Amino acid sequence: MTMLFTTIDSPLGELLLAGERVAGAPGGTALASLSVPGQKGGATVGAGWVRDDAAFAAVAEQLGAYFAGELTRFDIAYVPSGSEFRRRVWEALDAIPYGTTLTYGAVADAIGAPRSAARSVGTAIGANPLLVVRPCHRVIGANGSLTGYAGGLERKQLLLALEGMTLGV
């Protein structure tokens, strides 16, 4: 499949969206990656990628509404990726309600893993290819501190503040 991409401006900087055409997906495109500038492990435009702004219009509209404080849950089709363990962790992230946080240990509990798996959960969260729309920013340290965000702790703090939470870096 041809990887499609676009970029959009946001309060986090220019977002890079990448995905594939999928029948039945909103806007006809399933999102494979959403990256911010300087993101650890973030996507970069690859050889053969095709810019298609229209393919991501529905995603861009939802992101705009989210950043405006008008949307609390995304309705976006995703390209399946990751190991079974990572997919379970990412599904747990999708279930964290807007404006709330969980600890890494609580995410481990949510997927039926022992709390001792919190480090593995953190690794899976760090590999999340869909920043913002898969809300890994809602996961915090056991002591309530902001920890581990591939897009940078300042962006994590901005996203939490947008959702009405104030946690220090």
Describe the structure.
This protein is an alpha/beta fold and 169 residues long. The chain folds into 2 domains: 4-67, Double Stranded RNA Binding Domain, CATH 3.30.160; 84-162, Arc Repressor Mutant, subunit A, CATH 1.10.10.10. The protein contains 5 helices and 6 strands, in the order ββββααβααβα. The protein has helices spanning 57-67, 84-94, 104-110, 118-126, 153-162, and strands spanning 4-8, 15-21, 29-35, 50-51, 102-103, 139-140. α3 (104-110) packs across α4 (118-126). The longest helix has 11 residues, at 57-67. The mean pLDDT is 92. Belongs to the MGMT family. The active site is at residue 136.
Category by helix and strand content: alpha/beta
Unreliable residue runs:
none
Number of domains: 2
- The CATH architecture of the largest domain: Orthogonal Bundle
List strands and helices in order, with pairings.
Layout: E1 4-8, E2 15-21, E3 29-35, E4 50-51, H1 57-67, H2 84-94, E5 102-103, H3 104-110, H4 118-126, E6 139-140, H5 153-162
Main location: cytoplasm
Subcellular location: Cytoplasm
Family: Belongs to the MGMT family.
Structural key phrases:
single chain, 169 residues, alpha/beta, Double Stranded RNA Binding Domain, Arc Repressor Mutant, subunit A, 2 domains, 4-stranded mixed beta sheet, 15% strand, globular, WH-like_DNA-bd_sf, MethylDNA_cys_MeTrfase_DNAb, DNA damage, MethylDNA_cys_MeTrfase_DNA-bd
Summarize the structure.
By secondary structure, the protein is α/β, with parallel strands linked by helices. The protein is about 30% helix and about 15% strand.
